[in-house]
Amino acid sequence: MPKITDALAKTLVPPSSGNRVHYDSEIGGFGIRVTAAGTKAFVLNYRADGRERRYTIGKYGRVWSVEAARKRAGDLRRLVDKGEDPLGTKHAKRAAPTVGDLIDQFKSVHLPRKRPNTVKQYEAILEQRVRPALGRMKLVDVKHADIDKLHRTMSKSAPYQANRMAAVVSKMFAYAMKLQWRTDNPVKGLERNHEERRERFLSPVEIGRLTDALANLADQRSADAIRFLVLTGARKGEVLAADWIQFDLETGVWVKPSSHTKQKRIHRVPLSAPALALLVNLRAKADAAADRAREEGMSAPTSSRYLFPGDVKGSPLSTIKKSWVTATAAAGLKDVRLHDLRHTYASILASAGLSLPIIGALLGHTQAQTTMRYSHLLDDPLRAATERVGAIVGAAGRKGADIVPLKAGGR
Prior knowledge:
Blueprint: H1 6-11, E1 19-23, E2 30-35, E3 40-48, E4 51-59, H2 66-81, H3 86-95, H4 99-110, H5 116-134, H6 144-155, H7 159-178, H8 204-215, H9 220-232, H10 236-240, E5 247-248, E6 253-256, E7 267-270, H11 273-295, H12 321-331, H13 340-351, H14 356-363, H15 368-371, H16 379-401
Helix pairs in contact: 4-5, 4-7, 5-7, 6-7, 8-12, 9-11, 9-13
């Protein structure tokens, strides 16, 4: 049993059938296996848990030289001496889930709990960004550096989107930890790109111009949806999915179900008189349309369960983007998103002097910090209040100046 050298490996003759292992004289269990076809591969035989195991290091040749295989065999032998099973670890790693497996699991189990718009955003990030870059990697092999590299690559062209990616991947790895597929989150500590908070509020003049533009829209169904957004400050998804059963027109209350709200709990919102009037008008138009359908002998009423029915029967209106673009262009409003109507609603409340908790309750914020972005808008009502105090104190001071104090000991 000589020491395996490069010279020896080259001279080994294939057996007539099967295979033969030539063992090394220095490292126990280390050998080179030669098959009848002439293939030569380095192996290491050892015992683990009372069983004989054979670990194939690799084929002799360009990839594995005798020197490299000997070093690898020595490393493996030291693991065996510590009580470990290298082959078992190798097989376990081969069967370990990949990032692609996690994406599939995350999408099928976790995402259905999210709102449709959120699901769409998550899927775009996972399928267009994460899977191409990391999908084939074993989950346990993903390092912080891998996430950082993807984040930096995306940041070159889409810094904000890179931050969104990091947030989604962080949630996904937190889910992996819950499944015990990972013991840590490789996104932790990632330095995100700085984001300038975008604040765009419509002024009263701009609201007036938008109102006029909505009145001239050809699609009044979408116009009504936009009007309702202005009057309630609700999220677009909540409005488009709104069902008549959620509204009490007598008390003027909208009860949003937990499945429609971001905070995942029922949100009860009082409606203003104009918002309620809009609903009454919508209800009247829907009932009139159903009556006409019955009079014309249609087999089923056309009245929809949704405030804003879509073109497909039984479905809500899916988009108002085209009408929004048309209306804002006609109103001369630049750089305005639909979501800015929600900011405008909050700004009106703040400017009217309502407290941040009240504003947060009306908007359905889950965290007080979210509402704090409107705190600077409280300056005007707060200034008016403090001016009142100043006026009273000032007036009292002037009156006090007219009083002549008595001298000590005077009569």
